[in-house]
Description:
It is a single chain. The chain folds into 3 domains: about 110 residues, Cobalt-precorrin-4 Transmethylase, domain 1, CATH 3.40.1010; about 110 residues, Methyltransferase, Cobalt-precorrin-4 Transmethylase, Domain 2 (2-Layer Sandwich); about 45 residues. Helix content is about 45%, strand content about 20%. The chain contains 11 helices and 10 strands. It binds S-adenosylmethionine.
Amino acid sequence: MGTLYVVATPIGNLKDITFRAVEVLENVDIIACEDTRVTKKLLNHYGISGKKLISYHEHNEEKAAEKLVALLKEGSDVALVSDAGTPCISDPGYRLVKKAWESGIVVVPIPGPFAGVTALSASGLPTDRFLFTGFLPQKEKHRKEALEEYIQSGYTFVLYESPRRVLKTLELIHRLAPDSDVVVAKELTKIHERFFRGKPQELIKVFSDDSSLLKGEFVIIVHPVIEEESDEDTIVEEIKRLLDENKKTGEIAKTISRMFNIPKSHAYKMVLKVQKE
Ligand code: SAM
């Protein structure tokens, strides 16, 4: 049986690779990669040649995973890489790794760059607890629902975003939680690396004033701040109105949670408090 190495590669700056990753890439028989041109560039940079590259991407994942597991079973060592960063993180790889474990193959991670954590580490936002959420869903309705869920978690959350949607996403964050602290990290580890920090509205202005900034790769990090205090009176008024309509506690809590974008448990407690008064 061969070994499957899951190897993290640079997210821009080719120097961001570990000694161990280079050693593994030098020693394996096969490298499973997304775009062979991207991986060849990395291999050439480190003087690695003579490797068999097998294309493994989101459109052939299932078939390629089967083929690779068969080769591993025959004794070949395989390195799984993606175009950038850590495989399986908003990138293909999961199916192969799962199949490998299920087939009794040893899987060894070779840690390295991950754009989400790279951005987070320099963001200056709270990092004690965070959610990595990857790309938002495509559809507007689902994007909003997903963001609402992340905001309500109260955790700092880390999004991947295409340059075409950065502004739209900032606008949505502004609509849902305007007091949040946001960091937009652009072109990490590359020449044009930049960090933009501020409230959603401030960042909307920055990117609207200079749309040439909306090029490259982006990570958006949000520390959600939900305004609860100043809305308290309005919420209480709304609860009283719904109680007057003889609505049930759970039903009111659900409505309040949706209307004011607050966690359901918090809404429930508020309804109980108003009922007791
Ligand atoms: N597997 C990768 C990782 O470990 O971060 C992520 C791959 S995902 C297909 C690509 C997305 O990651 C980009 O659209 C961008 O949101 C983010 N990303 C990757 N490299 C980046 C960089 N150098 N600067 C900013 N964002 C980056």
